[in-house]
Fold:
Amino acid sequence: MTYEYEGKTEKEAIEKAAQELGLERDQFDVEILETQKNSLFKKGFVKIRVHTEGNTPVAEKDYAAEPRAPRSHVANPIPQDEFEQKLIDFVTQVIQKMGYEVKVEIMFREERKIGIKLQSESSSILIGRKGKNLDALQLLMNVYAGHLGREDIRVILDTENYRIRREETLVRLAYTTADKVRSYRKSILLEPMNPFERRLIHTTLNDIPDIETKSEGDGLYKQVRVLYKGVI
Structure:
């Protein structure tokens, strides 16, 4: 399900969404739709779209008051329970049916998130163009986790540290695009991206006074337009 919220800042909008939906921050994805910085005639705001899986539960617990489990930097790669073993068996079988050999390990564990690492000589194929194959496999993993009764757990799938490398590439792209927009005084429309990638672009450029960003298009993979606003 999707919901839209506004706030003076991204943090305020996200906190409003979490409070009204009764969810912890890790239980939903955030897509930044539009950002407007303060100017002489307009007040700044951030508009977000929140994506949740299934029906939104009624808040019964103050999760914000509970300490969060820190991420284990050196996680035990061996499955620790039946749920983890089923996840590993599932993704292994899917990839093998695709025709590729793979070794699957636990990458990290958090209170409501688990990371799974794929090791394969065919990693480039598993990643796919712009990570779309990896995103599709990750979606399957999360659907399967839901079938196992663990809708509360978000599964993160990675191989060859692609997700980290992709984040670094997008941050560089954001700054380079902002420089071009400032030089040419024209907006630039970036390639289609998933909600997480678009949010990274929005967040990276949010504090630059003369640059504005907004998402355009329909569906999961929208485009970010970077615009020149001039000195405020």
The CA atoms of residues 96 and 102 lie 7 Å apart. Helices lie at 10-21, 82-97, 123-127, 132-147, 162-184, 195-205. The longest helix spans residues 162-184. Strands lie at 2-7, 29-36, 45-51, 103-110, 113-119, 154-158, 188-189, 211-216, 223-228.
